[in-house]
Predict the 3D structure of the following.
Amino acid sequence: MPNFLSNEQTDVDAGRRIKANKQGGRLRVFEAVEVVPAGGIAIADKIIWGKLPVGARVLGYLSRLRWSAGAASSTLNLGDNVTAARHLAATAVTTAGSATPDVADTGGASFETSNDSANAANGYVSATDNCTLISAVAGAALQAGQVITLRVVYVCD
């Protein structure tokens, strides 16, 4: 019966080093909180959560987006400048709850950040930046006072 080797085992057998974000790396946690300001956050507005480091391998199944009760029909996604729903498709945030942002992990692949070109000077917009975590509001404006917390677990080193 033949053996089939993963890419990593092939590299080990050839004496090549494995990235720390794949084997032996340390878990890191990114956490950000948005308390919706008076007047709410309108449809198509974005929440810029912050940045993961270049080379971060996101562990979506360990991560969570949590929210308190909000306005009827409000949804949020989670992605970046390249793919709007890379980590979480549009999800209702109307009643208190949580969701696992692991869309990037479906299909057997994992996601690793590679570009950190968005910043305050360019309005956090870059066609190639996949390090900046962004949620877009849809369905209805977010309700003033609603608390939304994003926790992303990743491995980098």
Observations:
- The longest helix spans residues 7-13.
- The chain has a mean pLDDT of 92.
